[in-house]
Amino acid sequence: MLVLMALSVPVAVAMALPALVGVIYVLDPNVLAASIDSIFVNHAASYPLVTIPLFVLMGEILYESGLTAKLYDAVRVWFGRVRGGLAFSSIGASAMFAASSGSSVATTSTMGVVASKEMLNAKYDQRLISGAIVAGGGLGILIPPSTIMIVYGTIAEESIGKLLIAGLVPGILLALLLMVTVAVIVAIRPSFGPGGDPATYAEKFRSITPIFAIGILFVLVVGAMYSGFASPTESAAVGVAGAIIIAAVRRSLSLANLLSAVARAVRTTGFIFAIILGSFMLNYLLAITRIANNLASFISGIAAPTAVIFAAIVVLYLILGAFMDAFAMVVITVPIMLPIVDALNLDPIWFGVIVVLMVEMALITPPVGMNNFILHGVAPQLKLGNIMKGAVVFCIPILATVVLLYIFPEIALFLPSRM
């Protein structure tokens, strides 16, 4: 599997092909057809997975409406005058866009286009610009809705609603820690983020409209899940309807824009589903060979504190994240890690948040961090070397969030426990 990935074979094929060969070797060729039918067809028809295309479509519609670009302008008006204010604005706008997107790629590319120009014109250092954008983009997979959370919940067979809600407080906490990182950087190096021109109160209050619209949509989607009024799939459908209404009220959604949003959502969904189905075949092989269970029994028998084993898991994700696709990292490691998590008596909902945080770090960790290359693609004036340097600094607040969650798991579990 790893060899195929290194040869640039599509991730879904690289996972499914060795698994198919493994099933034939362990069982029998005659079993393979029944296995494919039960695994691929049944899982592809899973009702909770409908949540993924709906949330992806919601984000695409809001992107086509131009509302996401307005978010940055709105936050910039409030914070642009302070030192490092445009970097604060990028992180704040990323957090709000994450509440309507669920995609790190979409958040990074949108903020990369809008925020990089503003900060370059204001003479910000490229490393600060890059770090703020790629790290802020990672919030797209932590703050609900989150496609990675849905994938984790499907594989782990945990409540998707609870997982999505579990990412809310850690997402806000991480956004604040990212802003603290910016504040520390500009305090040490003032030239990295000079202050801008102040805005009038009239300009500030006029800028609230897009924030208000996203806020209403977020409350509708997340509030419906938290209260139990709607399932995650139903909440996602409400989100799509709300996005269409917002775009219609703003008169910024034509038939051509809507079709473009649907086309991109279909492509993204196909990519995600291919990986998920490939992973289920791999999970089936792990189940019939009991590799994951035997590994869990071995690790649980090691005379080492839980904290040491957890630290080893974090280090493993750091290593994998530097070289592996984010979705692949989740679908490959989660079936192996879950028996270990269970043996250590750790909460699987809490562990889902940890996994997403490690994926978020993988998205910005050199040499393969996807967000870094996305930013370089949409803002080629930013040198890739500077992007990598800026990204490494912003790994610190992500690790700090992981440590805080280990010490205080209620940060992630408080809200889901009251749903």
Features:
419 residues, mainly alpha, 23 helices, globular
What report would you give on this structure?
The protein is 77% helix and 0% strand. The mean pLDDT is 84. The chain has 23 helices and no strands. α6 (85-101) runs antiparallel to α7 (104-121), α7 packs across α20 (370-378) and α18 runs antiparallel to α19 (348-362).
Low-confidence parts, pLDDT < 50 over ≥5 residues?
none
Structural class: mainly alpha
Number of DSSP E strands: 0
Mean pLDDT: 84
Largest sheet: none
Give the helix level as a range of percent. over 70%
Question: Beta-strand level of the residues, as a percent range?
Answer: under 5%
Helix segment tally: 23
Terminal residue distance = 39 Å
Mass-distribution shape: globular
Cα Rg: 21 Å
User: What's the order of the H and E elements?
Assistant: HHHHHHHHHHHHHHHHHHHHHHH
List strands and helices in order, with pairings.
Blueprint: H1 2-6, H2 11-26, H3 29-44, H4 51-64, H5 67-79, H6 85-101, H7 104-121, H8 126-137, H9 147-156, H10 160-166, H11 168-188, H12 201-206, H13 208-227, H14 232-249, H15 255-289, H16 291-300, H17 306-321, H18 326-343, H19 348-362, H20 370-378, H21 384-393, H22 395-407, H23 410-413
Helix pairs in contact: 2-3, 2-15, 3-15, 4-14, 4-15, 5-6, 5-13, 6-7, 6-8, 6-11, 6-13, 7-8, 7-20, 8-11, 8-21, 9-18, 9-19, 11-22, 13-14, 15-18, 16-18, 17-19, 18-19, 19-22, 20-21
